[in-house]
Amino acid sequence: MIEFFFDCSSPWTYLAFHNIQPLAKELGAEIIWRPILVGGIFNTVNPSVYAQREKPVPLKARYMKKDLQDWARSAGLAIKMPPTVFPVNSVKAMRGCIWLGKDMVPFATSVFEAYWGGDKDISQDTVLAEVCKKLGIDEQKFFAGISEQAIKDQLKANTEEVVARGGFGSPTIFVNKTDMYFGNDRLPLIREALLRGKASAA
């Protein structure tokens, strides 16, 4: 089993979200999608992210852009870094994922594509309405749903849970509850962990 804690505001999460699905399918692993607010994690346990944004190391920042584009090319994805609006407030989008439940993957995929591929501001209702229209989601029900207190509480609970379990950013991925991995580049290690689990269960 894979638990995938994610926020659509992260480019590395877009890559991992895309790349982990065929991996899980190939190995017969179930993915449990867990929407979070990565800003809440940074505020709580990882404020160094903000310091890096304010005072980036030029050589490291330049390489990070290249590294991101190399990974995007490998995945067949288009990622503009930075987007026009960055960082972006993804709270409504992530509440939308919670509200959609088992049907969240097409929505999350479209939100990722709109923001990272289309350079659209996913904090705006008009952009989320476009995504809903494209997917045949009732817009009025969507916006009513994401304003429900239970949905807000679940997003907060997911965010607090991943921190309590040792997470410090997005994507945070767990294999079989306790084996934690962080980031898109850990997928080869996740593959090995899943294969070990299958071997021990055989």
Features:
single chain, 202 residues, alpha+beta, 10 helices, 4 strands
What is the topology?
Layout: E1 2-6, H1 11-27, E2 31-35, H2 38-45, H3 48-54, H4 58-75, H5 91-100, H6 104-117, H7 125-135, H8 139-145, H9 149-164, E3 172-175, E4 179-182, H10 187-201
Parallel strand pairs: 1-2
Antiparallel strand pairs: 1-3, 3-4
Helix pairs in contact: 1-4, 1-6, 1-10, 2-9, 5-6, 5-9, 6-7
Domain DSBA-like thioredoxin: 2-194
Active site: 10
Protein name: 2-hydroxychromene-2-carboxylate isomerase
Write a structural description.
The chain is α+β, with helices and mostly antiparallel strands and 202 residues long. It is 61% helix and 9% strand. It contains ten helices and four strands, in the order E-H-E-H-H-H-H-H-H-H-H-E-E-H. The chain has a four-stranded mixed β-sheet, sandwiched between helices. Helix 1 runs parallel beside helix 10 and helix 5 runs antiparallel to helix 6. The longest helix has 18 residues. It starts with a strand and ends with a helix.
The tally of helices reads 10
* Rg calc: 17 Å
Mean pLDDT value: 94
Number of beta-strand segments: 4
Order of helices and strands: EHEHHHHHHHHEEH
- Fraction of residues in helices? 55-70%
GO molecular function: 2-hydroxychromene-2-carboxylate isomerase activity; glutathione peroxidase activity; glutathione transferase activity
Catalytic activity: 2-hydroxychromene-2-carboxylate = (3E)-4-(2-hydroxyphenyl)-2-oxobut-3-enoate
Domain DSBA-like thioredoxin: 2-194
Pfam family, one: DSBA
